[in-house]
Design goal:
mainly alpha
Length: 359
């Protein structure tokens, strides 16, 4: 299959889309070179090659996996999460026109998966169209309605947030992207400091990377983003308040995964393992050794002994795990989801909650 992302389309992109009159040729080329380093330009990525055999991209995928789809979506009033009612041809990535078009420029309100229409700050709206996932806690509640919390049901399937839902993480409780347990309060939209309070203030809009030097004027001495500390609270209960919030989130993810495995074995009656790279991510641990062994991370071996309690925890694990920047996008929301999931499993299984302090 030949993709038309060669010299001619790039020149056209520079000339007609990215090349505003005030920009010089040198600036244009710098923009194109930055874009080519980004995942948006990777024509060999699964995100753009998944539909090669079909020859077209379904309308419920096209908006975020093709320039054609997103331009069509933005040309109409935004009344639902990114879906159009027809397939589009394969062959594009996320190119200049995807973000530089009249619909994108006028966009100020974005509909999230839970149905909420949110006014999004300048520089974040077009990003939020795709980086919001495709599910919310409402989908989880609908999936388990009428089923006892610890009853295994063949009617339950794993619900996948669908990767890198940074905008949903940032909005927190306003759009209920994570599973929010009844009786708990959750952090709302995470507002950073002035000047670094929207997507493109932190992420280069073309290369998409974040420059560490953007952070070090306030967070002096850090060498990794995960080293940034955003709360004085001793979340892990070990007297450690100087380690980065990213390391705290990572440890909580480990503890939640272990709690999921323990609950599955003790209460659901079937051992489970998680594979980060294989859909649908949760699989039967056939030899109950706690590791993903050869042949286990295969669709026919997908985990099917779900209870409502297990699904809620697994959903939250995936929500935080698939947003690699969750610790920066909304650290308190991420920590709350992880701790609440651990504690909910611990209410019926011998899960260790020692030291945990919820923000």
């Amino acid at each position: 299959m030949s993709y038309f992302l060669g010299f001619v389309p790039i020149v056209l992109c520079v000339a007609f889309t990215c090349g505003a009159a005030a920009q010089t040729s040198e600036m244009n080329m710098a923009i194109v070179e930055a874009w080519m380093k980004s995942g948006h330009a990777d024509a060999d990525a699964e995100a753009f090659r998944h539909w090669d055999d079909e020859g077209e991209i379904p309308g419920d995928c096209a908006v975020c996996h093709s320039t054609t789809g997103v331009v069509e979506f933005l040309s109409t009033p935004q009344q639902a999460t990114g879906v159009i009612d027809h397939p589009v041809p394969i062959g594009t990535t996320i190119e200049c026109e995807a973000c530089h078009n009249a619909g994108a420029e006028d966009l100020s309100t974005v509909v999230f998966p839970d149905g909420q229409a949110i006014s999004v700050a300048d520089g974040s709206a077009i990003c939020s169209v795709c980086h919001q996932g495709r599910t919310s806690m409402a989908d989880v509640d609908d999936a388990v309605e009428g089923i006892g919390a610890d009853d295994v049901s063949d009617q339950i399937r794993f619900i996948n947030i669908h990767y890198a839902a940074a905008a949903t993480t940032q909005q927190g409780s306003a759009v209920r992207g994570g599973y929010q347990y009844p009786g708990k309060s959750y952090a709302g939209p995470f507002e950073h400091v002035p000047g670094l309070n929207n997507c493109v203030a932190c992420h280069d809009p073309h290369e998409t990377v974040v420059k560490l030097e953007n952070c070090t004027s306030c967070h002096a001495g850090i060498s990794e983003f995960a080293d940034i500390r955003t709360t004085p609270l001793d979340i892990l209960g070990r007297g450690e308040t100087g380690n980065g919030i990213g390391t705290v989130v990572d440890e909580l993810k480990v503890r939640l995964k272990e709690a999921i495995m323990l609950y599955a074995r003790e209460k659901a009656g079937m051992a489970v393992v998680y594979s980060n790279a294989s859909y649908p991510y949760f699989f039967v641990d056939t030899n109950e050794n706690g590791s993903v062994d050869a042949g286990e991370a295969a669709f026919p071996n997908r985990y099917a002994s779900w209870t409502p309690r297990l699904l809620r925890a697994a959903y939250n694990y995936q929500f935080v795990n698939k947003d690699k920047g969750a610790f920066a996008h909304n650290p308190h929301y991420a920590v709350q989801l992880l701790i609440d999931s651990i504690e909910d499993l611990a209410s019926v299984a011998p899960v260790d909650t020692t030291g945990l302090m919820r923000p």
